[in-house]
Amino acid sequence: MKKMITNLVFTKNRPLQLDAYLQSLYRYFPSELIRTYIIYKVELFDQEYQQLFRKYADCIVIKENDFHSDFLKLLARIDTKYILFGVDDVVYFDSVDFEVIDETFDRFADDIFGFSLRFNEKNVKKNDPVGETVIAGQTVYNLNWTQGQTPVTRYPFELCATIYPTVLVKRVIDGMMNSNPLVKKLFLPGFALVKSLAKIASRHSILKSFGYFYNPNTLESWNCRWCQNHSDQVPGFLYFQKLCASAIQVNMVNTSSRKRFNGSRGYIIETLAEKYRQGFRLDIDFVAENKPVDAYCGEEYFRAKAI
Fold it and tell me: How big is the chain by its Cα radius of gyration, in Å?
């Protein structure tokens, strides 16, 4: 069967958490439907990551050299109907009905931005007007993200657990970037001109002004901001059925992240990497038995067990 979804995962300094992401992903996503790529920033714990990559040998690992260029090269290769993004602190804990998702995209092709796996009727309806319809005999909900009442519901382009049409992702990325061919060439990350200008201005501010994201956080936030500022150019509705995944945020590896996080010193990356070396893994059964009720949760769901 032809792969239907390309899953793009980003990871840095979190082998234990990436293991939980992949283990839970393949519990609920049929492997024949999904192809997983991992963009891996080599910094700490390479030995632990190599052990993990051997376990998940079907995943295609890309060692990050220049995030912007690496991502664009990969995006150009994708030929599946859908794209699902992932980050290493997300855990799946409920089943995903692809027949419902695929039919939703087919029926509402003109107005669907994405199908969210981190919303359900309860955690959205208390804040946002929610519509509903029946698809493949099941109830499916939607919300207009352009009128979202919370930071989560008005944030359409996110990297945790939403399935997007591949053509839409490519259109958003292309729209966000500066369209001038000369600018595209001169301001590629790593190009000499950017290095020269960095002597008089922040490299990051230079790249941002020309639409060149340099890590997963900027890929998400800059493209989301573009969608919010050009809502007339992209579909207005996020569809969803049930909460299937949550980001268990107990530590931070990128200080520029917009997201909240919970945790204490017991969850610093060195401590968790040592746990991984000792044979501990995140207890995804506990998460599935005590399902989170929001798109983000904290250390109460983070239980490591020896295997």
Answer: 19
Q: Give the pLDDT of residue 192.
A: 60
CA geometry: angle at 226 spanning 229 and 231, to 5°?
Answer: 45
Residues constituting the chain:
307
For 259, residues 6+ apart whose C-beta sits below 8 A from its C-beta are 247, 249, 296
Decide if 62 contacts 40 (C-beta within 8 A): yes
Closest-CA residue to 223 (of 178, 272, 273, 176): 176
Query: CB–CB of 71/219 below 8 Å?
Result: yes
> What order of strands is seen across the sheet that includes strand 296-297?
90-92, 245-248, 296-297
Secondary structure of 20-89 in HEC code, one letter for each residue: HHHHHHHHHCCCCCEEEEEEECCCCCHHHHHHHHHHCCCCEEEECCCHHHHHHHHHHHCCCCEEEEEECC
Does the structure show a pLDDT above 60 at 263?
A: no
What is the model's pTM? Answer: 0.90
Closest CA to 301 of 84, 89, 86: 89
φ/ψ of residue 95, rounded to 5? -70, 155
Q: Which two tokens stand for residue 300?
A: 């109460």
Phi, psi values for residue 193, rounded to 5°: -65, -40
Contact partners, residue 89, CB within 8 Å, separation at least 6? 14, 17, 21, 247, 248, 249, 250
